[in-house]
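Page 42, continued from yesterday. The earlier attempt failed because a stray header line got pasted into the input along with the sequence. Redoing it now with the clean sequence only.
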Amino acid sequence: MDARPPRPDEAGGSGAAGGTHAVGSARAADGADPGRGGIADEEVDTASRRFWEAEADAYQAEHGAFLAGARGWGVDSSNSVGGIDYADVPGVDGSAFVWGPEGLTEAEAGLLGPIEDLRGRRVLEVGCGAAQCSAWLARQGVHAVGIDIAVNQLRHVPRSAVPAPDRSAGPAPDRSAGWAPPSAGPAPDRSAGPAPDPSPTTSPTAPPTPRVVDSVDPADGIPDTTGWGALHVVAATATALPFTNGSFDAAFAAYGAVQFVARLPRLLAEVRRVLRPGGTWVCSVTHPVRWAFPDDPGPAGLTATLSYFDRLPYVERVASGVAVYAEFHRTIGDYVAALRGAGFSIESMVEPEWPEWNTSTWDGWSPLRGTALPGTLIIGCRAADG
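This time it went through. C-alpha coordinates are written below.
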Protein backbone atom coordinates (compact mmCIF):
# COMPACT_ATOMS: atom_id res chain seq x y z
CA MET A 1 0.00 0.00 0.00
CA ASP A 2 1.59 3.21 -1.19
CA ALA A 3 -0.71 6.16 -0.70
CA ARG A 4 0.58 8.89 1.56
CA PRO A 5 -2.48 10.66 2.97
CA PRO A 6 -2.62 14.42 3.40
CA ARG A 7 -1.08 16.38 6.23
CA PRO A 8 -3.49 19.26 6.76
CA ASP A 9 -2.09 19.93 10.21
CA GLU A 10 1.32 20.57 8.64
CA ALA A 11 -0.18 22.78 5.96
CA GLY A 12 -1.54 25.40 8.31
CA GLY A 13 -4.69 23.52 9.29
CA SER A 14 -6.51 23.48 5.97
CA GLY A 15 -4.59 21.27 3.60
CA ALA A 16 -4.98 21.19 -0.16
CA ALA A 17 -8.47 20.64 -1.46
CA GLY A 18 -8.81 17.32 -3.15
CA GLY A 19 -6.39 14.42 -3.45
CA THR A 20 -4.70 12.52 -0.68
CA HIS A 21 -1.62 14.62 -0.12
CA ALA A 22 -1.03 18.13 1.13
CA VAL A 23 2.41 19.66 1.37
CA GLY A 24 4.08 19.40 4.75
CA SER A 25 5.97 22.20 6.46
CA ALA A 26 9.36 20.71 5.63
CA ARG A 27 8.49 20.53 1.94
CA ALA A 28 7.12 24.08 1.99
CA ALA A 29 10.42 25.24 3.46
CA ASP A 30 12.16 23.62 0.50
CA GLY A 31 10.07 25.73 -1.85
CA ALA A 32 7.53 23.12 -2.91
CA ASP A 33 4.48 24.74 -4.48
CA PRO A 34 1.32 22.59 -4.18
CA GLY A 35 -1.82 22.97 -6.23
CA ARG A 36 -4.04 21.70 -9.00
CA GLY A 37 -2.43 21.97 -12.41
CA GLY A 38 -0.99 20.22 -15.42
CA ILE A 39 1.99 17.86 -15.63
CA ALA A 40 3.63 16.20 -18.62
CA ASP A 41 3.30 12.43 -18.78
CA GLU A 42 7.06 11.95 -18.84
CA GLU A 43 7.43 13.84 -15.55
CA VAL A 44 5.13 11.58 -13.55
CA ASP A 45 7.22 8.46 -12.93
CA THR A 46 10.27 10.53 -12.10
CA ALA A 47 8.30 12.63 -9.61
CA SER A 48 6.75 9.56 -7.98
CA ARG A 49 10.05 7.76 -7.72
CA ARG A 50 11.74 10.86 -6.25
CA PHE A 51 8.96 11.37 -3.71
CA TRP A 52 8.74 7.79 -2.45
CA GLU A 53 12.49 7.27 -2.31
CA ALA A 54 12.65 10.31 -0.02
CA GLU A 55 9.50 9.67 2.01
CA ALA A 56 9.57 5.88 2.47
CA ASP A 57 11.27 5.89 5.89
CA ALA A 58 8.94 8.49 7.38
CA TYR A 59 5.83 6.97 5.81
CA GLN A 60 6.55 3.46 7.08
CA ALA A 61 7.49 4.79 10.52
CA GLU A 62 4.15 6.61 10.73
CA HIS A 63 1.79 4.13 9.06
CA GLY A 64 3.61 0.82 8.62
CA ALA A 65 2.42 -0.73 11.89
CA PHE A 66 -1.24 -0.03 11.12
CA LEU A 67 -0.86 -1.48 7.64
CA ALA A 68 0.71 -4.58 9.18
CA GLY A 69 -2.20 -5.30 11.46
CA ALA A 70 -2.31 -2.88 14.40
CA ARG A 71 -5.84 -1.52 14.85
CA GLY A 72 -4.91 1.90 16.06
CA TRP A 73 -1.84 4.05 15.64
CA GLY A 74 -0.68 4.24 19.25
CA VAL A 75 2.33 2.00 18.70
CA ASP A 76 6.00 2.76 19.03
CA SER A 77 7.46 2.26 15.59
CA SER A 78 10.61 4.26 16.19
CA ASN A 79 12.71 1.25 15.28
CA SER A 80 11.03 0.88 11.91
CA VAL A 81 13.23 3.26 9.92
CA GLY A 82 15.72 1.36 7.83
CA GLY A 83 13.85 -1.95 8.01
CA ILE A 84 10.74 -2.79 9.99
CA ASP A 85 10.60 -5.91 12.10
CA TYR A 86 6.95 -5.99 13.10
CA ALA A 87 7.61 -8.81 15.54
CA ASP A 88 9.27 -6.17 17.74
CA VAL A 89 6.33 -3.75 17.65
CA PRO A 90 3.81 -4.25 20.48
CA GLY A 91 0.35 -5.16 19.27
CA VAL A 92 1.40 -5.88 15.70
CA ASP A 93 1.43 -9.39 14.29
CA GLY A 94 1.97 -8.63 10.60
CA SER A 95 -1.23 -10.50 9.80
CA ALA A 96 -3.35 -7.84 8.10
CA PHE A 97 -4.15 -6.89 4.54
CA VAL A 98 -5.67 -3.40 4.89
CA TRP A 99 -7.58 -1.82 2.01
CA GLY A 100 -7.53 1.75 3.32
CA PRO A 101 -7.49 4.15 6.28
CA GLU A 102 -10.84 2.88 7.51
CA GLY A 103 -9.12 -0.38 8.42
CA LEU A 104 -11.19 -2.80 6.31
CA THR A 105 -9.15 -5.98 5.85
CA GLU A 106 -9.17 -8.58 3.11
CA ALA A 107 -9.92 -11.21 5.75
CA GLU A 108 -13.18 -9.36 6.43
CA ALA A 109 -14.06 -8.37 2.87
CA GLY A 110 -12.86 -11.34 0.79
CA LEU A 111 -12.65 -9.18 -2.34
CA LEU A 112 -9.98 -11.35 -3.97
CA GLY A 113 -12.11 -14.43 -3.35
CA PRO A 114 -12.08 -17.23 -0.76
CA ILE A 115 -8.59 -17.58 0.65
CA GLU A 116 -8.70 -21.36 0.23
CA ASP A 117 -9.07 -20.78 -3.52
CA LEU A 118 -6.05 -18.48 -3.58
CA ARG A 119 -3.63 -20.92 -1.94
CA GLY A 120 -1.00 -21.97 -4.43
CA ARG A 121 -2.06 -19.21 -6.82
CA ARG A 122 0.07 -16.33 -8.10
CA VAL A 123 -1.08 -12.86 -7.06
CA LEU A 124 0.48 -9.51 -8.04
CA GLU A 125 0.38 -6.38 -5.86
CA VAL A 126 0.78 -3.17 -7.88
CA GLY A 127 2.38 -0.38 -5.84
CA CYS A 128 3.14 -2.55 -2.84
CA GLY A 129 5.14 -0.17 -0.63
CA ALA A 130 6.51 -2.38 2.16
CA ALA A 131 4.29 -5.24 0.93
CA GLN A 132 2.23 -5.64 4.09
CA CYS A 133 -0.72 -6.87 2.02
CA SER A 134 1.36 -9.35 0.04
CA ALA A 135 2.95 -10.59 3.26
CA TRP A 136 -0.49 -11.45 4.59
CA LEU A 137 -1.30 -13.34 1.40
CA ALA A 138 1.98 -15.26 1.63
CA ARG A 139 1.02 -16.32 5.16
CA GLN A 140 -2.12 -17.86 3.69
CA GLY A 141 -0.19 -19.93 1.16
CA VAL A 142 -0.31 -17.54 -1.81
CA HIS A 143 2.66 -16.97 -4.13
CA ALA A 144 2.68 -13.17 -3.84
CA VAL A 145 4.75 -10.76 -5.92
CA GLY A 146 4.83 -7.03 -5.18
CA ILE A 147 6.11 -4.25 -7.41
CA ASP A 148 6.91 -0.69 -6.41
CA ILE A 149 8.55 2.23 -8.16
CA ALA A 150 10.76 3.06 -5.15
CA VAL A 151 13.57 0.81 -3.99
CA ASN A 152 13.52 2.53 -0.60
CA GLN A 153 9.96 1.33 -0.04
CA LEU A 154 11.01 -2.23 -0.79
CA ARG A 155 13.82 -2.01 1.75
CA HIS A 156 11.10 -1.88 4.41
CA VAL A 157 9.62 -5.24 3.47
CA PRO A 158 9.79 -7.11 6.81
CA ARG A 159 11.23 -10.60 6.80
CA SER A 160 9.32 -11.40 9.99
CA ALA A 161 5.99 -10.64 8.30
CA VAL A 162 5.82 -14.10 6.73
CA PRO A 163 5.96 -16.71 9.51
CA ALA A 164 5.03 -20.35 8.97
CA PRO A 165 1.33 -20.84 8.21
CA ASP A 166 -1.17 -22.88 10.15
CA ARG A 167 -1.25 -26.26 8.41
CA SER A 168 -3.92 -27.75 10.66
CA ALA A 169 -6.29 -27.93 7.71
CA GLY A 170 -3.75 -29.93 5.71
CA PRO A 171 -1.45 -28.95 2.87
CA ALA A 172 -2.47 -26.37 0.34
CA PRO A 173 -3.39 -27.74 -3.08
CA ASP A 174 -0.54 -27.75 -5.57
CA ARG A 175 -1.66 -25.70 -8.54
CA SER A 176 1.79 -24.57 -9.50
CA ALA A 177 3.10 -27.38 -11.74
CA GLY A 178 6.66 -26.50 -10.83
CA TRP A 179 5.96 -22.85 -10.23
CA ALA A 180 8.80 -20.35 -10.27
CA PRO A 181 8.70 -16.60 -9.72
CA PRO A 182 7.27 -14.80 -12.77
CA SER A 183 10.17 -13.98 -15.02
CA ALA A 184 11.44 -10.50 -15.52
CA GLY A 185 13.12 -12.06 -18.52
CA PRO A 186 11.96 -12.17 -22.16
CA ALA A 187 10.30 -9.00 -23.33
CA PRO A 188 6.55 -9.34 -22.79
CA ASP A 189 4.24 -9.53 -25.78
CA ARG A 190 2.28 -6.31 -25.82
CA SER A 191 0.78 -6.78 -29.28
CA ALA A 192 -2.69 -6.57 -27.75
CA GLY A 193 -1.75 -3.77 -25.40
CA PRO A 194 0.13 -0.48 -25.19
CA ALA A 195 3.68 0.21 -26.21
CA PRO A 196 6.21 -0.06 -23.40
CA ASP A 197 6.58 2.95 -21.15
CA PRO A 198 9.76 4.76 -22.22
CA SER A 199 10.69 5.37 -18.58
CA PRO A 200 12.90 2.80 -16.82
CA THR A 201 11.07 -0.25 -15.49
CA THR A 202 13.41 -0.49 -12.54
CA SER A 203 15.03 2.03 -10.26
CA PRO A 204 18.79 2.41 -10.80
CA THR A 205 19.72 0.28 -7.81
CA ALA A 206 16.94 -2.28 -8.24
CA PRO A 207 17.67 -5.97 -8.74
CA PRO A 208 17.05 -7.08 -12.35
CA THR A 209 14.95 -10.07 -11.29
CA PRO A 210 12.51 -10.75 -8.43
CA ARG A 211 14.23 -10.78 -5.06
CA VAL A 212 13.18 -13.48 -2.62
CA VAL A 213 12.22 -11.74 0.60
CA ASP A 214 10.85 -14.63 2.58
CA SER A 215 8.86 -17.84 2.27
CA VAL A 216 6.33 -19.40 4.55
CA ASP A 217 8.04 -22.75 4.02
CA PRO A 218 11.70 -22.02 3.27
CA ALA A 219 14.04 -24.76 2.17
CA ASP A 220 17.63 -23.62 2.15
CA GLY A 221 16.41 -20.14 1.29
CA ILE A 222 14.46 -21.29 -1.79
CA PRO A 223 10.72 -20.52 -1.79
CA ASP A 224 8.44 -23.52 -1.61
CA THR A 225 7.00 -24.16 -5.07
CA THR A 226 4.65 -27.00 -4.17
CA GLY A 227 1.66 -25.30 -2.64
CA TRP A 228 2.67 -23.00 0.21
CA GLY A 229 3.27 -19.33 -0.29
CA ALA A 230 6.23 -17.08 -0.89
CA LEU A 231 6.81 -13.35 -1.14
CA HIS A 232 8.92 -11.65 -3.79
CA VAL A 233 9.32 -7.95 -4.59
CA VAL A 234 10.48 -6.18 -7.75
CA ALA A 235 11.31 -2.52 -8.41
CA ALA A 236 9.26 -1.58 -11.48
CA THR A 237 6.75 0.89 -12.85
CA ALA A 238 3.07 -0.02 -12.97
CA THR A 239 2.73 1.02 -16.62
CA ALA A 240 5.45 -1.39 -17.85
CA LEU A 241 5.18 -4.54 -15.78
CA PRO A 242 8.24 -6.79 -16.27
CA PHE A 243 6.28 -10.04 -16.48
CA THR A 244 5.13 -12.25 -19.32
CA ASN A 245 1.53 -12.51 -20.45
CA GLY A 246 -0.84 -14.46 -18.20
CA SER A 247 1.65 -14.71 -15.31
CA PHE A 248 -0.87 -14.14 -12.51
CA ASP A 249 -4.19 -15.49 -11.32
CA ALA A 250 -5.14 -12.25 -9.56
CA ALA A 251 -3.81 -8.72 -9.05
CA PHE A 252 -4.64 -5.86 -6.73
CA ALA A 253 -3.62 -2.35 -5.67
CA ALA A 254 -4.40 -1.12 -2.15
CA TYR A 255 -3.97 2.63 -2.68
CA GLY A 256 -1.00 1.76 -4.85
CA ALA A 257 -0.10 3.22 -8.26
CA VAL A 258 -3.61 3.67 -9.71
CA GLN A 259 -4.07 7.29 -8.68
CA PHE A 260 -0.39 8.11 -9.19
CA VAL A 261 -0.18 7.42 -12.95
CA ALA A 262 -1.15 9.86 -15.68
CA ARG A 263 -2.12 7.14 -18.14
CA LEU A 264 -4.63 4.94 -16.36
CA PRO A 265 -5.56 3.00 -19.54
CA ARG A 266 -1.91 1.95 -19.92
CA LEU A 267 -1.73 0.68 -16.33
CA LEU A 268 -4.99 -1.25 -16.73
CA ALA A 269 -3.86 -2.72 -20.06
CA GLU A 270 -0.66 -3.95 -18.41
CA VAL A 271 -2.58 -5.49 -15.52
CA ARG A 272 -4.93 -7.16 -17.97
CA ARG A 273 -1.96 -8.46 -19.99
CA VAL A 274 -0.25 -10.17 -17.05
CA LEU A 275 -3.50 -11.70 -15.77
CA ARG A 276 -4.76 -15.02 -17.01
CA PRO A 277 -8.19 -14.94 -18.70
CA GLY A 278 -10.85 -14.63 -16.03
CA GLY A 279 -8.35 -13.34 -13.47
CA THR A 280 -9.37 -11.00 -10.65
CA TRP A 281 -8.34 -7.33 -10.36
CA VAL A 282 -9.23 -5.27 -7.27
CA CYS A 283 -8.06 -1.73 -6.53
CA SER A 284 -8.71 0.78 -3.78
CA VAL A 285 -8.35 4.52 -4.28
CA THR A 286 -9.26 7.70 -2.49
CA HIS A 287 -13.01 8.02 -3.02
CA PRO A 288 -13.46 10.43 -5.95
CA VAL A 289 -16.00 12.46 -3.97
CA ARG A 290 -13.23 13.45 -1.54
CA TRP A 291 -11.52 15.53 -4.22
CA ALA A 292 -14.28 18.14 -3.91
CA PHE A 293 -13.55 18.68 -0.21
CA PRO A 294 -10.60 20.19 1.69
CA ASP A 295 -8.29 17.61 3.25
CA ASP A 296 -9.19 18.61 6.79
CA PRO A 297 -10.20 16.04 9.43
CA GLY A 298 -12.39 18.61 11.18
CA PRO A 299 -15.64 20.41 10.28
CA ALA A 300 -13.97 22.37 7.47
CA GLY A 301 -13.49 19.08 5.66
CA LEU A 302 -17.25 18.59 5.37
CA THR A 303 -17.91 21.47 2.98
CA ALA A 304 -17.23 21.06 -0.74
CA THR A 305 -15.00 23.79 -2.16
CA LEU A 306 -14.18 22.40 -5.62
CA SER A 307 -16.07 20.78 -8.45
CA TYR A 308 -16.18 16.98 -8.38
CA PHE A 309 -15.72 17.16 -12.15
CA ASP A 310 -12.46 19.16 -12.00
CA ARG A 311 -9.97 16.57 -13.22
CA LEU A 312 -6.84 18.67 -12.92
CA PRO A 313 -4.22 16.63 -11.02
CA TYR A 314 -2.71 17.66 -7.72
CA VAL A 315 0.95 18.57 -8.37
CA GLU A 316 3.81 19.82 -6.24
CA ARG A 317 6.76 21.59 -7.82
CA VAL A 318 9.92 23.09 -6.36
CA ALA A 319 11.08 26.58 -7.24
CA SER A 320 12.96 25.34 -10.30
CA GLY A 321 9.69 24.01 -11.72
CA VAL A 322 10.57 20.34 -11.26
CA ALA A 323 7.60 18.19 -10.27
CA VAL A 324 8.16 16.33 -7.00
CA TYR A 325 4.70 14.82 -6.50
CA ALA A 326 1.64 14.15 -8.65
CA GLU A 327 -1.72 12.54 -8.01
CA PHE A 328 -4.66 12.19 -10.38
CA HIS A 329 -8.40 12.58 -9.90
CA ARG A 330 -10.91 10.49 -11.81
CA THR A 331 -14.65 10.39 -11.31
CA ILE A 332 -16.40 7.10 -10.63
CA GLY A 333 -17.62 7.18 -14.22
CA ASP A 334 -14.04 7.63 -15.43
CA TYR A 335 -12.96 4.51 -13.56
CA VAL A 336 -15.87 2.49 -14.93
CA ALA A 337 -15.12 3.55 -18.51
CA ALA A 338 -11.37 2.88 -18.19
CA LEU A 339 -11.89 -0.56 -16.68
CA ARG A 340 -14.41 -1.60 -19.31
CA GLY A 341 -12.16 -0.26 -22.03
CA ALA A 342 -9.30 -2.41 -20.74
CA GLY A 343 -11.39 -5.59 -20.90
CA PHE A 344 -12.59 -5.87 -17.30
CA SER A 345 -16.10 -6.50 -16.08
CA ILE A 346 -16.94 -4.78 -12.79
CA GLU A 347 -18.26 -7.15 -10.15
CA SER A 348 -18.33 -5.01 -7.02
CA MET A 349 -17.89 -1.51 -5.64
CA VAL A 350 -17.27 -1.16 -1.92
CA GLU A 351 -17.34 2.09 0.07
CA PRO A 352 -16.10 1.08 3.55
CA GLU A 353 -17.89 2.72 6.44
CA TRP A 354 -15.82 4.13 9.27
CA PRO A 355 -15.87 1.52 12.06
CA GLU A 356 -16.56 2.32 15.71
CA TRP A 357 -13.26 0.83 16.83
CA ASN A 358 -11.30 3.29 14.70
CA THR A 359 -11.06 6.40 16.87
CA SER A 360 -7.84 7.70 15.33
CA THR A 361 -7.23 10.44 12.81
CA TRP A 362 -5.01 9.61 9.85
CA ASP A 363 -4.35 13.08 8.52
CA GLY A 364 -7.36 13.91 6.33
CA TRP A 365 -9.23 10.78 7.41
CA SER A 366 -11.06 10.97 10.73
CA PRO A 367 -14.13 9.56 12.52
CA LEU A 368 -15.96 12.85 11.91
CA ARG A 369 -15.44 12.79 8.16
CA GLY A 370 -15.62 9.02 7.91
CA THR A 371 -19.14 8.85 9.32
CA ALA A 372 -20.37 11.54 6.91
CA LEU A 373 -18.39 10.99 3.69
CA PRO A 374 -16.94 7.93 1.96
CA GLY A 375 -13.14 7.99 2.08
CA THR A 376 -12.22 4.94 0.03
CA LEU A 377 -13.58 3.32 -3.13
CA ILE A 378 -12.72 -0.33 -3.80
CA ILE A 379 -13.54 -1.72 -7.24
CA GLY A 380 -13.58 -5.46 -7.88
CA CYS A 381 -13.24 -6.68 -11.47
CA ARG A 382 -12.71 -9.76 -13.59
CA ALA A 383 -10.64 -9.95 -16.75
CA ALA A 384 -12.46 -11.07 -19.85
CA ASP A 385 -12.04 -14.71 -20.88
CA GLY A 386 -9.81 -15.23 -23.87
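Notes: The two ends are 30 Å apart (CA to CA).
Reminder to self: strip header lines before submitting.
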